[in-house]
Design goal:
The protein is of the alpha/beta class. The chain contains seven helices and 14 strands. It starts with a strand and ends with a helix.
């Protein structure tokens, strides 16, 4: 199985930890965030991954080489300009389309700066059973940005900030706000549906496709541990949590 790890960001919120390294190489209990993410994906059957890089790109490339790619096939997608999540995936689309026999095989898209115990096997199974274009791990928790889902768990809009009007792309009665966890399962057929170009958020693509009737589904991950590692204090808290979630 294949995956993409999103690791190209500047890690601005993580400063000073990212003054001399990319966020992917920030350490948590002696292990880099990239190692933790790849090891977790590998434990769920991923043996091929592509990692996008930009900030301190060469450090990531050298690091992976020194670790023998952790026993996986790993490709690098270098971004001279940060392309955001959608643009980054679109640039790396070749990786998921190179084998015509595997073009129906779903893949994971995983932020490098999140830590979780989400059962990716269950998430993948839910995606397959639902026949979704993409499945997003979501939780009911506080967040300044919420995705809005209908009673059937299908994406219908988003709420960006409490004081802003929600963006509804397919009205559907009562909508439930849920916080996205930075982990997706994606069907490769999505890749040909991106009409967006250059720098764009994958969420923008999802909302456009949802408005066209495509199934972008929720995987409820409320029962699992999850933490955003985007700030130094969050990394310190995760270090304290690690012993109980390993």
């Amino acid at each position: 199985m294949k995956a993409m790890v999103l690791a190209a960001g500047l890690g601005t919120r993580l400063r000073p930890l990212t003054d001399d390294r990319p966020k992917a190489l920030v350490e948590l209990s002696g292990r880099t965030l990239l190692e933790i993410t790849l090891a977790r994906l590998r434990s769920f059957g991923v043996n091929e991954a592509i990692v996008n890089v930009h900030y301190f790109a060469d450090l990531i490339i050298e690091y992976l080489k020194s670790k023998n790619n952790f026993g996986m096939r790993i490709e690098i997608s270098r971004e001279d300009v940060l392309l955001d999540t959608g643009g980054g995936l679109k640039k790396a689309a070749w990786f998921f389309l190179e084998d015509s026999k595997r073009q129906d095989e779903p893949f994971f898209l995983h932020n490098v700066d999140v830590l979780s115990t989400i059962d990716l096997r269950r998430m993948l199974q839910s995606h397959k059973e639902d026949g979704a274009l993409a499945t997003l791990a979501v939780q009911q928790r506080e967040s300044s940005r919420q995705l809005l889902f209908n009673q059937h768990g299908k994406l219908c809009g988003r709420q960006a900030g409490r004081d802003r009007e929600p963006e509804i792309v397919c009205p559907s009665g009562q909508l439930q706000p849920l916080a996205f966890s930075g982990i997706h399962v994606i069907s490769p057929r999505l890749l040909a549906m991106f009409t967006e170009t250059g720098v764009f958020s994958i969420i923008d693509g999802y909302l456009r496709l949802a408005a066209q009737g495509q199934a972008i589904s929720a995987f409820r991950a409320d029962e699992y541990y999850w933490r955003d590692l985007g700030k130094p204090e969050n990394v310190r808290q995760a270090e304290q949590d690690m012993s109980s979630i390993d």
